[in-house]
Amino acid sequence: MSDRTIRKTVIPMVLTFILTIAGCASTKNVGPEDTLQDTSSLDAGATLRAANADAAWPASTWWRAYNDPQLDAWVARAQAGNPTLALAAARVREARSMAGVAQAALAPQVDGSLAINRQQWPENGYYGPGTFNNVNTWDNTAALQLSYNLDLWGRDGNATERALDATHARAADARAAQLELEANVVRAYIGLSQGFALRDIAQSTLDQQQKIAARARRRLQGGIGTQLEVAQAEASLPDYERQVETYDEAVALARNQLAALAGAGPGAGDSITRPVLSLATPLGLPSALPAELIGRRPDVVAARWSVAAQARGIDVAKAQFYPNINLMASLTQMSAGGALLTFLTGNGSGWTAGPAVTLPIFEGGRLRSQLGAASAQYDQAVDHYNATLVAALRDVADQVVRIKSLDRQLDASGRSVAAARKSYRLADEG
């Protein structure tokens, strides 16, 4: 059969056979069921709509707004030493390496092999007495093999994109972990400041009550008071002393928490002095909520990248239904006798070249099950994204409610302090 006949008849027949057999495995009725939540369909609510939207997005070093160098130092220490943050960074490195593995499948693969053997031919071999009777010979082989996957259906390309999307998701997860760590450090530091402040209040209250008790005792000694008045004034002293001890405990626990967040032992927190927080910038929200929330919150970004990665996974699963074509070639140098380097001469050369085709024919439903699993994983990623988006909006709304409530509480507390000071002054004057 001539080359021309092969090109005109055999090759078309082979291609037709491949496509026909590939059609035996169908993707019909197998696919995702869930859809991404549209942010415009979520009602931001009156709380967000009424919020002050004049503020800019916070800087990456947002905690510096508190103007406390000690806080800045502990945030930096936590960023450098926290093991959870180190774990997130290691996961990013792992994802990047896996993306490199996936990308390598798109490039030609070249392997080499070398075998050098010295053989002793026995005198009583099955071949009988002859040329090789009790003779030592070299049996050496060197080979190069090349293969290149044409990736006609995009299996390896989509696998690479899936790995890259997963890397982006890991990076966003790492940023979310870093942001959570920074928030936890600031929260613990504010708790430490609050502990000091409450301890001062408790100590001041205790001092005042001790003065009241002392005054009651002087009145009793002067004959104008009663034992009941002294007992009543002294009755609350143990409770006020307990409150002072409670806030001393809170300060110690906050120091321990800061040390743990920095990946250090409890002793590292002993050197923390009283915070000097001074937040001068008024709290507010940036404009364009909730739309820009998608591009700003790392947890939402990570969930979106996970959806993209799982979508690529569906494409990879679909590509498994089609033939895989590899271009193969090899070059061999070999000899079964002669000197050590005889196999490197031209007489020992050989080569092969041609395509290698693999295709699914009967696989018991494995490919449809793999596609179904990939589709279900995509649905899970979509559901996780939708849940993350809803939780993010709730978190923002909750913070707005807290800010407004704290403003009102601060105003009420100011009035209460003023009234208490007036009452104490009147009592002290009396």
UniProtKB/TrEMBL annotation:
The keyword Transferase does not apply. InterPro entries: MdtP/NodT-like, OMP_efflux. It is a lipid-anchor. Residues 230-257 form a coiled coil. It is found in: Cell membrane; Membrane. Keywords: Coiled coil, Lipoprotein, Membrane, Palmitate, Signal, Transmembrane, Transmembrane beta strand. It comes from the Bacteria. Belongs to the outer membrane factor (OMF) (TC 1.B.17) family. This is RND efflux system, outer membrane lipoprotein, NodT family.
